[in-house]
Amino acid sequence: MPTGTNAQIDSRRLARKPLPVILALSGLVLGFLIWLIYFKGRVAAPAWADSLPAANAVFNSLSAICLILGYINIRRKKRVVHMRFMLSAVTFSALFLLGYITYHYFHGDTLFLGHGWIRPVYFTVLISHICLSMVTVPLVFTTLWYALRGQFRFHRGIARWTFPIWLYVSITGVVVYFMLKPYIH
What we know:
The chain is mostly helical. 79% of the residues lie in helices and 0% in strands.
């Protein structure tokens, strides 16, 4: 059995094992979304698909609320409550992703038609949201992996980055929805 420094090295190796799989899975999700939004042709949308952007904004809002409540509860050392809120945040984010994929399967990209000062504001929010959402997927998978494996030292280390980025992406997703709402068909 390894001791001292060797145990730390083995622990780090074991902790990094899922990272290539998580990065590959995240890359596949990202590649699929790019294809879906920008390259796949449009398909006739059923009437219910028009309600998906609003539902997605609700899922993002609920995810943000759960993230904040999860953070508050871990600071209070209420691990079980923290875990429930964080798993709820993962669930709401997964529902968002499902709704997002479904909506864009039917509608493709939604163009922002605003003019004046709001246009650069919108694109600043959108670009930061998109860039950070690409980072969020592997961060969430990694953070969740360490928590489920009971590797809380690694979980805490990555969660310090995951939490603010994920919260920002959830909140700006709602902001983007409200800025796009007049142009969603």
